[in-house]
Hints:
Distance between the termini: 87 Å
Shape: elongated
Strand content: over 45%
Largest sheet: 6 strands, antiparallel
Oligomer: single chain
Number of strands: 9
CATH topology: Immunoglobulin-like
Order of helices and strands: HEEEEEEEEE
Helix content: 10-25%
Structural class: alpha+beta
Number of domains: 1
CATH class: Mainly Beta
Amino acid sequence: MRVKTISFVVFFVFLFLVSANYGLAENCESILDDGDLKLLKGCSFDKKNKIITGVVENTGDNTYDDVFITFELYDNDNNMFDTFPGHTGFLRPKGTWHFKLGGVNDMANRVVAVQLSGIVLKKQEIQIKEE
């Protein structure tokens, strides 16, 4: 039993050190709220693989035709040097968009979510011509 306990503790210490060194679960440092669209807690930036993940929820009653999110990228000296966009189409009422945005610039050490917006799908009435 003692060997299993020691192995278990060693594993979690190793996992903690790896995530501290590589930033495997860095917070995006901002929770956005754009009326019906909300960036939920749990947004993260994987520094090693340069991937941003998170969830946007449509809490309203309108369907969005397009949803956009923008992140600012910061270097090791904490200077903002670029932005990184994400986009999805068609987000239903009470729906969620689980995003995984890859290809973030290699210089990025930190990301901050700065803008969340959407375009509401407008219903159009079709006129039928009677002949």
